Amino acid sequence: MKTILITGATSGFGKAIALKFAKEGNKIIITGRREERLKSLKLEVESTFNVKVLTLCFDVRNKEGVFKSIYDIPEEWKKIDILINNAGLASGLDKIQDGDIEDWEKMIDTNVKGLLYVSKAVIPFLIKNKSGHIINIASTAGKEVYEKGNVYCASKHAVDAISKAMRIDLLEHGIKVTNIAPGAAETEFSIVRFHGDEKKAKNAYNGYQPMSADDIANVVYYTTTLPENLCINDLVLTSLAQANSFYTYKK
Ligand code: NDP
Ligand code: 8X3
């Protein structure tokens, strides 16, 4: 039984990842801003899988909040084995000349700075344990840039670079770092990207079958089941309809 800390567990990939690890008998620490969703996921997981769940409600952009929440974790939860940096978002889809600076800041503050704050707070626990695994949820948007993707793509390219850098720096401590780069998957992602416009969000998945959150959760889980001496460093996964960041075959 391991202890897994998952950011952004109130929806989409993070929730599916939490359910998968719990189903496999692990203790999970679930985080996000929406406390009600954290509470109801805790109830669901504890009653279905009979494993322990700790909820931590914080905004990853709030530096003090992140450090306080993680340092205050009860002693029996401090042996974290796996950190899954998943919390993130796209906000807006506009050409660079039309982009909204607030959207840009939201993406950079969450996807890059938030990931760094959580990592900085958790890494000392992993170093102390002389083992551990960090899984960063990047994106195909972190591999190639697409039209109107500008700042979101930049933030995910940063995640890609941070994963590479973490792997080098943490090698001496026996900590694995896996960068996961999914293509399109249907979650609340597009609803958030289009600022709550559900029709526009639905259109993003017209004419092809995107991946599901469960697909991502199963692959994330798989990367944690390898022998101690093996690490998947970088993994790109898409549905069969998608070749890369900008080419999807739509019927
Ligand atoms: P969802 O919108 O369904 O889930 C996003 C999660 O991130 C929520 O749990 C949300 O929790 C959390 N989150 C967002 N902002 C913050 C914040 N400031 N502080 C704390 N938590 C936050 O989207 P997905 O599940 O699809 O996205 C998960 C990750 O996967 C993101 O990093 C996204 O960029 C990436 N990704 C998504 C793809 C897709 O096509 N869906 C493809 C490739 C990568 P709450 O609102 O409660 O805080
Ligand atoms: C999310 C997938 O295609 O919108 O990272 O960039 S995409």
What does the secondary structure layout of this molecule look like, with pairings?
Layout: E1 3-6, H1 12-23, E2 27-32, H2 35-49, E3 53-57, H3 63-71, E4 82-85, H4 101-129, E5 132-137, H5 150-170, E6 175-182, H6 189-193, H7 198-203, H8 213-223, E7 234-237
Parallel strand pairs: 1-2, 1-4, 2-3, 4-5, 5-6, 6-7
Helix pairs in contact: 1-2, 1-8, 3-4, 4-5
NADPH dihydro-nicotinamide-adenine-dinucleotide phosphate binds at residues 8-14, 32-34, 59-61, 86-89, 110, 114, 137, 139, 182, 184-185, 187-189, 192.
- The best one-word shape is globular
Poorly predicted runs of 5 or more residues: none
Radius of gyration: 17 Å
**Helix and strand sequence:** EHEHEHEHEHEHHHE
What is the CATH superfamily classification? Answer: NAD(P)-binding Rossmann-like Domain
Number of helices: 8
Class, according to the CATH hierarchy? Alpha Beta
Total strand segments: 7
Query: Biggest sheet: strands, sense, closure?
Result: 7 strands, parallel
For this structure, the quaternary state is single chain
What class, by secondary structure content? alpha/beta
Bound molecules: NADPH dihydro-nicotinamide-adenine-dinucleotide phosphate, 2-hydroxyethylsulfonic acid
CATH structural fold name: Rossmann fold
